Amino acid sequence: MSTLINFTFGLLLWVFPGKLPTKMDIAQTVGISLRTGDASQLSARFAKTIELVIDTENVEFQAIQATQARFILRSFFRKYPPHKFQFVYQGASDRLRYSTGTYEANGQIFTVYVLMRQMNDHQYAINAMHFRKES
Length: 135
What we know:
By secondary structure, the chain is an alpha+beta fold. It is 33% helix and 42% strand. The protein has one domain (23-133): Nuclear Transport Factor 2, Chain: A, CATH 3.10.450.50. The protein is built from 4 helices and 6 strands; from the N terminus they run αααββαββββ. A 6-stranded mixed sheet has the order 2-1-6-5-4-3. The N and C termini lie far apart (68 Å).
């Protein structure tokens, strides 16, 4: 009986092979990180320097090191812990991906803009993040 079960299980694995785990898409990383307020996970996908704008914190850097941006975002997430995040628009053009979303925290709403650029290794890295508070 156990031989029959093993044979059946083996046959099912052969007919319906499992999908190998793949690296999480950058848009998924951005969405999950903003929903959970995880600055470390988000900053792991930053380019070496990024443009970072957070209007409520008077943060406006044209080029800031990824490590510094992580600390600023960690502070932002503590002050404005996420309640909800959803993408409103996602698009792409040659070697670029861009997303706009709505970030809700403590009864406040922010529009989030993210620009991602394809690097030489064909992976995408975050080049710009803007958080603009809705009036």
